[in-house]
Specification:
By secondary structure, this protein is mainly alpha-helical. About 65% of the residues lie in helices and about 0% in strands. Helix 2 packs across helix 3.
Amino acid sequence: MSDLSDIADGDPRRLRGLHDSLNRLTDSPEPELREMARAVLHSEITLRTAALSGAYAPALGDAFNAFWTYYSQLSSEERSELEASAYTDFPASEQHPST
């Protein structure tokens, strides 16, 4: 099992979400995030190793903190809408996994 598949716990919806997120990061304005995403997608480093790496952990932490600040300021309705929108690009068979 690949690192990403292991992180996604074998759930194809989560795995696709990880791949999509990494693909978006390849266009990040942050050079560390671009480099890390490309390295993970090309199997040069695992996501777990990247997250713990001194080279990438600060940029990942900053990105997560920015997201968490944004997310924590949303109303519960806005959070629900954001979460629901995360599944709109997936086929119906992947939108509501049984796990």
